[in-house]
């Protein structure tokens, strides 16, 4: 998926791995430890639904600069320590 400022330079590729339970089991068979920060787990692979889900998540993100927005897009989810505000 490519995201960025419309009509301006700065479009960036956003990539994650989409994984079904069967594919995860296969990966774990060969690699007993996996880091899943940029993995999206789905019951069944349906590319149009995944694309729509990601597009909807990205569309609601806001930030004052493209760089700050790109950081949020790269995370997709929230993590307690990254998103903690005093």
Question: Secondary-structure element order, as H and E?
Answer: EEEHEHH
Average pLDDT figure = 82
Rg, alpha carbons: 15 Å
Q: Beta-strand percentage?
A: 5-15%
Largest sheet: 2 strands, antiparallel
Could you estimate the helical fraction of the residues in percent?
A: 25-40%
How would you portray this structure in words?
This protein starts with a strand and ends in an 11-residue tail after the last helix. Helix 1 (21-30) links the parallel strand 3 and strand 4. The protein is built from three helices and four strands. It has 86 residues and is of the alpha+beta class.
What key attributes describe this structure?
3 helices; globular; single chain; 4 strands
Summarize this, please?
The protein is of the alpha+beta class and 86 residues long.
What secondary-structure arrangement, pairings included, does this model have?
Layout: E1 2-3, E2 12-13, E3 17-19, H1 21-30, E4 39-41, H2 47-59, H3 66-75
Parallel strand pairs: 3-4
Antiparallel strand pairs: 1-2
